[in-house]
Specification:
The structure is a homodimer of 160-residue chains. In chain A, 44% of the residues lie in helices and 15% in strands. Chain A has 160 residues and is an alpha/beta fold. The first copy, chain A, has a single domain, classed as Rossmann fold, CATH 3.40.50.2300. The first copy, chain A, has a five-stranded parallel sheet with strand order 2-1-3-4-5, with helices on both faces. At the A-B interface, helix 5, strand 5 and helix 6 of A face helix 5, strand 5 and helix 6 of B.
Amino acid sequence: MTNRHNQPTSLRNFRHASLLVVEDNKDHWFLIKMALEQSLPEVEPMWAANREEALQYLNSCLLNGTDLPKLILLDLYLPKREDGWELLQEIKDQSSSFKQVPVVVLSYSNAQEDITESYFHGSTSYVTKPADAQAWMEYTQKLRTYWWETVTLPSDRYMT
Amino acid sequence: MTNRHNQPTSLRNFRHASLLVVEDNKDHWFLIKMALEQSLPEVEPMWAANREEALQYLNSCLLNGTDLPKLILLDLYLPKREDGWELLQEIKDQSSSFKQVPVVVLSYSNAQEDITESYFHGSTSYVTKPADAQAWMEYTQKLRTYWWETVTLPSDRYMT
C-alpha cells in the first residue's frame, strides 16, 4: 500500500527486518522457518525456545544497538499457557522497552479462554496453528500480505 | 483457516459481528462504510465521530448485554492525535472492559513518531489511510482476509 506522502509502506517494513519465533517444539520451529524462508525471504527469522531465551534475545538487541524484531510469533503453550502469558505480559508491560512490537499468539488450542485471555494480556492477534507444511506456507503468506505489505510496522529509529 | 479441533475460525468471527469505526470526517466514514459493505457484508459497521461517542457506544454494549465490536478502526487525528491516543489508552488500560478488542489505527500521517507512539499506546497495527474508494476496497478486503479469515477474534462469550 502506498500513501500520499512518499514510499510504499513495505519498503520501511523490510529494512533491517527480523521476526522472532518463540516456540518450544523444535519440529514446529523447522516448519515455521521453512515457510517463512519461502514467504518472507527478506526477513530474518530468529528462534527462542522459551521465555528466558526470548527475553535474552530482546535485551541483547537493545544492548547491541541492533533492531528489535518487527513482529513476534509466540507459541502460547511453552509448555504451559501461563508461560506464554507471562512472557506476553512482560513484553507488553507499561515499562517494557519492547512494548511496541506486535505479538501474534499461535496455538493448537481453540479454547475461548485461551483466545480471549491472550487478547487481555496484550496479544495483537491469535491464530490457531496451521496443521501441516502447506498450511504453514499459506499462513506465512497471509502474514506477509497483512503485516509487511499493508500495515506500517514500528521502527527502532524512533524511540520514546 | 481450520484447525484440528472443530469449525473454521471464520464461523466464530462472523457470529454477532460488528466493527466500530471512530472517524471525525463524515466523508471518510461514508467511504469506509461503502468499502466494508462490499468486503465484509456479514459484519455490521458502526460509526462514532469522536472519543466520547466511541466510549458511549462501547459502554452501551456492556450495559445492554450486546456483543462488543470484533475490531475497532481508529482515526488517529480526531482532530488532534492526542485525542486518538487518549481513546486508545482508555480502551487498552489495564482496568478497561474493552481491553481485548483489537484497535487498528488509521491515519494519513506517515510520521515515524505517530506510528511508533500508536504501538506504544496499544494499537494492534497502524495503517496509512487509503487514498480513494478503490484503495479502501482493497484495504477492507485485506482486513477481511487477515482478521476474519485467518485470526481468531476475541469473543464476548468468555469474560474474565
